[in-house]
Amino acid sequence: xxxxxxxxxxxxxxxxxxxxxxxxxxxxxxxxxxxxxxxxxxxxxxxxxxxxxxxxxxxxxxxxxxxxxxxxxxxxxxxxxxxxxxxxxxxxxxxxxxxxxxxxxxxxxxxxxxxxxxxxxxxxxxxxxxxxxxxxxxxxxxxxxxxxxxxxxxxxxxxxxxxxxxxxxxxxxxxxxxxxxxxxxxxxxxxxxxxxxxxxxxxxxxxxxxxxxxxxxxxxxxxxxxxxxxxxxxxxxxxxxxxxxxx
Length: 247
Description:
10 helices; mainly alpha
């Protein structure tokens, strides 16, 4: 029964990722319901959502590009290295400490989602980040992505547009970079002995199917209300995680 609930949650998460982002807000608590600790749930969710990220990244590969003075190759290697650092930091964090950190991570990810969805303004024309600043920001985002990952899409979208990429190119590029940083994390997590592979398989299947439906529904639903739904889920999850960790 729990795996049926997990499959449904993963399907919804896949569709949510394709439409507005924030799918990990759904898969993470669903995996906790199976009795995993927060660190194992985060690792399992990262592995399970990775195939969908690769598919999404490849779908718009013609739009992928680097910034004015920062090539995509540089962004690729920064994302790969940052993902490795983040993954290793997560494995070095005890499950108990991670349990205490999760409420703050979810709160941060929710606030990032609110900012990116409703308050972020496009960068002023002609004012772009330099290559060192843009590269440093991408590396830090990749570390966070390998460690937890909630909100990385919006963080990268903001950073890449500030670096001079048009919104459409920034959207396609951040999808591929998300897959890159999680590829390094997944490669490490796969040998950690912490991932729950049956649950990861169920989530992966549900998320891939949901992603296809989400792509079909992209121009048929009100994205604003979807984003409002993600904020509600993120807020409820933040409260639940604080209660769980600090009761």
